C-alpha cells in the first residue's frame, strides 16, 4: 500500500453511494453480566477504543438494538461497559454473547492519506500495464505482517493480493478502483516460468 494511501482497521456509510459498504461495523462482543448494576464484560475489537466514550451510541446484536454508553472501564483483558438504558443485571442479560456495532455513517473522517478497510470492499482491481480487470475486492484478511485483499474474478479461483507498496499502486475511491502491479506467482492461473 503506498504510504499516502495507508488503511486503518475499521472502528468497524449508510449514507454512502457505495452499496458494498456495510451499514454497521463490529467493534466488540458483550460477554456476560458483571455485578448487580447492569455492567457487562466486553471484548473490544476496534483499533480505536478511545472512541468508545460515555454518550456514544452502539447497536447490539443482529437486531441492532440501540444503546448509549453510560460508562466504560478496563477490567483484566476486557472492559466493563454499562448503558444509559439499563440499570440491572437482569436487564442486560439479554445481550450475553452479542456483537456490538457502530454505524459506518457515524464514523469520524480519517486524514486524507488514510482509509477505513470497509471502504475497499467492492473496488474493481485493475492490473497496471494492460488495464485488465482482475475482479472485485470481496474480503480483507488482517494478518500480522500486512493485510491481504481477496479478489473475486469473474471466472476462476480467488486472487490473494498482499497490501504492500510494490503491489498496490493506487486506490481511487471515486472511480471505485484499485490499481495493482502483480508480482510473479500471484495469479494461480498464470503459466509457470522454468
Count of individual beta strands: 14
Q: How many helices in DSSP terms?
A: 1
Proportion of helical residues: under 10%
- Between the first and last Cα atoms, what is the distance in angstroms? 30 Å
- Rg calculated over all Cα atoms: 20 Å
- Which descriptor suits the 3D outline? elongated
CATH class of the largest domain: Mainly Beta
CATH architecture of the largest domain: Beta Barrel
Estimate what percentage of residues fall within beta strands: 35-45%
Structural class call reads: mainly beta
CATH topology of the largest domain: Elongation Factor Tu (Ef-tu), domain 3
**Low-confidence regions:** 1-17
Mean pLDDT: 80
* Major β-sheet annotation: 6 strands, antiparallel, barrel
User: Could you state the CATH homologous superfamily of the largest domain?
Assistant: RimM
> What string gives the helices and strands in order?
EEEEEEHEEEEEEEE
In which order are the strands of the major sheet placed? 2-3-6-5-4-7
List the domain count as a whole number: 2
Can you offer a commentary on this structure?
With about 190 residues, the protein is mainly beta. It has two domains: about 25-105, Elongation Factor Tu (Ef-tu), domain 3 (Beta Barrel); about 120-180, Roll (SH3 type barrels). It has one helix and 14 strands, in the order ββββββαββββββββ. The strands form three sheets. Strands 2-3-6-5-4-7 form a six-stranded antiparallel barrel. Strands 12-11-10-9-14-13 form a six-stranded mixed sheet, with no helix packed on it. The chain starts with 5 loop residues before the first strand and ends in a 14-residue tail after the last strand. Residues about 1-15 have low confidence and may be disordered.
Amino acid at each position: 500500500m503506498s504510504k499516502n494511501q495507508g488503511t486503518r482497521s475499521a472502528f468497524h456509510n449508510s449514507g454512502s453511494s457505495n452499496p458494498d459498504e456495510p451499514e454497521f461495523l463490529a467493534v466488540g462482543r458483550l460477554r456476560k453480566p458483571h455485578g448487580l448494576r447492569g455492567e457487562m464484560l466486553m471484548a473490544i475489537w476496534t483499533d480505536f477504543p478511545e472512541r468508545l466514550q460515555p454518550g456514544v451510541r452502539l447497536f447490539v446484536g443482529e437486531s441492532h438494538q440501540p444503546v448509549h454508553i453510560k460508562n466504560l472501564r478496563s477490567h483484566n483483558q476486557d472492559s466493563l461497559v454499562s448503558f444509559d438504558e439499563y440499570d440491572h443485571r437482569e436487564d442486560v442479560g439479554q445481550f450475553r454473547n452479542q456483537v456490538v456495532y457502530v454505524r459506518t455513517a457515524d464514523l469520524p473522517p480519517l486524514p486524507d492519506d488514510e482509509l477505513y478497510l470497509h471502504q475497499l470492499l467492492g473496488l474493481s482491481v485493475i492490473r497496471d500495464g494492460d488495464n485488465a480487470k482482475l475482479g472485485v475486492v470481496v474480503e480483507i484478511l488482517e494478518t500480522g505482517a500486512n493485510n491481504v485483499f481477496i479478489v473475486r474474478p469473474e471466472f476462476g479461483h480467488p486472487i490473494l493480493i498482499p497490501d504492500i507498496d510494490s503491489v498496490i499502486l493506487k486506490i481511487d475511491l471515486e472511480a471505485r478502483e484499485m490499481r495493482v502491479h502483480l508480482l510473479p506467482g500471484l495469479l494461480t492461473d498464470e503459466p509457470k516460468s522454468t
